[in-house]
């Protein structure tokens, strides 16, 4: 697997036997999977929309056009280019709201994954590294969280903290912590007795250095995959909470909340329900595709 | 055998106590005093307040309150609903069959479709069918099921008029619950019209709740089959001249089923979680809808008891799967 790998971008100065840069090798495996490439492109597009929502969106997401209530999308009879994807029940432009919703969803994914990854990683490192009582206590607690259906736990936490976007993000973060903790612990246990770890220990490295600098870098592959898939869980669960009225509150243009608040117009104006759902589906699907591709590329053992 | 079962059961006890502790703490994190929640906004005399506190055991130290709570739970007292003043356990028991019926139907739907689809995809690896199954199942896995339910209602109920929009049974019928399973109860009293009505009501919620498990089962079956099909004994079976269908159906499938059965067991949590959304969309009178309504009414004892009961059922099912597994597979039984 060396000859065709080191082709264009590997520097010709290097000796022919030099292995390709790990990133290059990763990219080679990654691009084999067309689905994950599509996922990556879609995610990048959504990210651009999210970042530049203010510039790209035709209108302010909360401005109400009283003369165009429930205006249909442009390809329907009576649709106009003024509102390409139509308007909702109080005359707000669907496209602008969806674009700002993309920003919220990407932000939810980012914050939830960062928060749960950080906590799960720390717990998993501690459990795997110290073992004994620490391990038992941490992992038992994780088992307890896992015994509750994730959406139920999120609903309960959101109900207790009170409805709102921030609380919904906290609720969804709590729910996914055990996954990261378990993965990290398993990876740490697999590494911790390897020769290189013992060597650094003998050389006098402290526990913190051993954990963060020696062991952790060798455990990241499964965590990257899980974090990518974590985006889709976060977006899906936050939207579900929004739909149940426990997440972002109207008039926030969060996709799940938009769906819930336009339910009664399902028959008269299907587009107010269709587009938020399509947005959720496409975003979540893209992250799942990307996660699958990353798994194949980062973990050759699982390769099909 | 008995030892194996006892070990498994003893492993579950700390988890159960932990869940009890968690639900105990969560309710205390609710902003506001539980008494105030009960008596409303109006102020009451301090003596009455102290009396209330005493009656509810809220003047005891926290550890005593927790022990009392555990004791109550052990003796089947899961608290009393603030709104209906019924015992939470009796409300749960009344509503649970509806959720169970829906969950079983969804699991059946997922298994009956997912298993063959996964097997065929693995056998025809790399074919158009394989790619189709994988694509569809990834889409199903990514589906926001609350939206999926709305789409199905819009298409089949509103557009084509094939299925009812919501509920469990047509209002024309009243069936006295015996088992709580509408499909069985209607047949028991010989009301075939009601049976058809119940079946019609069940179709869309089943599809909605079964979509994610279907995707999971299909994917898992495919990858388990692929792994098994590469084994030596499969090659041997082929070499012996056995027919393809015999090799796949008997030799491969039986071994591939082990991880698939585990995954099906693990879907119980997904199903009960998904039931919250599905029941809300279809006004299905089960546990999920009841929990969401309890939250809306700030009925925290009902929420607390309901969560504990759901968690207990999930633990019980997982334990059952675990034990069954040991019964079916001696290698696991003797592992420890």
Helix-strand topology string of chain A: HHHHHHHHHHHH
CATH superfamily of chain B: MetI-like
* Helicity of chain A, as a percent range: 55-70%
Task: Report the helical percentage of chain B.
Answer: over 70%
For the record, the CATH architecture of chain B stands as: Orthogonal Bundle
Low-confidence stretches of chain A: 1-11
- Secondary-structure content class of chain A: mainly alpha
CATH superfamily of chain A: MetI-like
Shape of chain B: globular
Task: Give a quick account of the main beta sheet of chain A: strands, pairing sense, barrel closure.
Answer: none
Name of the top-level CATH class of chain A: Mainly Alpha
Look at the structure and give the mean pLDDT of chain A.
85
The share of residues in extended strands of chain A comes to under 5%
The CATH topology name of chain A reads MetI-like fold
GO molecular function (chain A): dipeptide transmembrane transporter activity
Transmembrane segments (chain A): 37-57, 104-131, 151-177, 223-248, 269-290
Protein name (chain A): ABC transporter permease subunit
InterPro entries (chain A): BP-dependent_transpt_permease, MetI-like, MetI-like_sf, OppC_N
């Amino acid at each position: 697997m060396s000859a065709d790998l080191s082709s264009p971008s590997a520097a010709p100065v290097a000796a022919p036997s030099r292995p390709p840069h790990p990133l290059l090798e990763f990219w080679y495996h990654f691009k084999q999977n067309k689905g994950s490439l599509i996922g990556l492109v879609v995610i990048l597009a959504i990210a651009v929309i999210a970042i530049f929502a203010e510039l790209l969106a035709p209108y302010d997401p909360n401005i109400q056009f009283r003369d165009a209530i429930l205006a249909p999308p442009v390809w329907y009879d009576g649709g106009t280019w003024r509102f390409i994807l139509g308007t909702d029940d109080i005359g707000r432009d669907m496209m602008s709201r969806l674009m700002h919703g993309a920003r919220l969803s990407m932000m939810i994914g980012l914050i939830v994954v960062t928060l749960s990854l950080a906590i799960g990683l720390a717990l998993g490192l501690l459990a795997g590294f110290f073992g004994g009582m620490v391990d038992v206590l941490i992992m038992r607690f994780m088992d307890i969280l896992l015994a509750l259906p994730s959406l139920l736990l999120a609903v309960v936490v959101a109900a207790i903290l009170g409805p709102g976007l921030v609380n919904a993000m906290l609720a969804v973060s709590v729910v996914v912590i055990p996954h990261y903790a378990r993965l990290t612990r398993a990876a740490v246990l697999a590494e911790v007795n390897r020769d290189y770890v013992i060597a650094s220990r003998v050389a006098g490295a402290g526990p913190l250095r051993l954990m963060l600098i020696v062991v952790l870098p060798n455990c990241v592959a499964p965590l990257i995959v899980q974090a990518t898939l974590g985006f889709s869980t976060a977006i899906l669960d936050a939207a579900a909470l929004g739909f149940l009225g426990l997440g972002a509150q109207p008039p926030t243009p969060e996709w799940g909340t938009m769906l819930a608040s336009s339910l009664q117009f399902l028959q008269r104006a299907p587009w107010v329900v269709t587009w938020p759902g399509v947005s959720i589906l496409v975003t979540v699907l893209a992250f799942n595709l990307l996660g699958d591709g990353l798994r194949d590329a980062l973990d050759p053992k699982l390769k099909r | 055998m008995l030892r194996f079962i006892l070990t498994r059961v003893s492993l579950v006890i700390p988890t159960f106590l932990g869940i009890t502790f968690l639900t105990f703490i969560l309710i205390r994190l609710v902003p506001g005093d539980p008494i105030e929640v009960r008596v409303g906004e109006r102020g009451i005399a301090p003596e009455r307040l102290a009396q209330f506190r005493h009656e509810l055991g809220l003047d005891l130290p926290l550890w005593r309150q927790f022990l009392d709570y555990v004791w109550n739970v052990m003796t089947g007292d899961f608290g009393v609903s603030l709104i209906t003043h019924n015992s939470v356990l009796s409300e749960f028991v009344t509503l649970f069959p509806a959720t169970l019926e829906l969950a079983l139907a969804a699991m059946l739907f997922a298994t009956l479709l997912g298993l063959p689809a996964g097997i065929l995809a693995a056998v025809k690896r790399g074919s158009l069918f394989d790619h189709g199954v994988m694509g569809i199942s990834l889409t199903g896995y990514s589906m926001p099921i609350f939206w999926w339910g709305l789409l199905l209602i819009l298409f089949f109920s509103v557009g084509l008029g094939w299925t009812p929009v919501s509920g469990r049974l047509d209002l024309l019928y009243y069936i006295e619950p015996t088992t709580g399973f509408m499909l069985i109860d209607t047949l028991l009293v010989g009301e075939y019209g009601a049976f058809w009505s119940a079946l019609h009501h069940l179709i869309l919620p089943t599809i909605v709740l079964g979509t994610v498990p279907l995707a999971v089962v299909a994917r898992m079956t495919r990858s388990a089959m692929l792994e098994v099909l590469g084994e030596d004994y499969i090659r041997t079976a082929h070499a012996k001249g056995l027919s393809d269908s015999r090799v796949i159906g008997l030799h491969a499938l039986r071994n591939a089923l082990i991880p698939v059965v585990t995954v099906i067991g693990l879907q119980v949590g997904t199903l009960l979680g998904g039931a919250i959304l599905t029941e809300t969309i279809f006004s299905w009178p089960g546990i999920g809808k009841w929990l969401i309504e309890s939250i809306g009414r700030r009925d925290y004892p009902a929420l607390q008891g309901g969560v504990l009961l759901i968690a207990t059922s999930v633990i019980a099912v997982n334990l059952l799967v675990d034990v069954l597994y040991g019964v079916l597979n001696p290698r696991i039984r003797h592992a420890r």
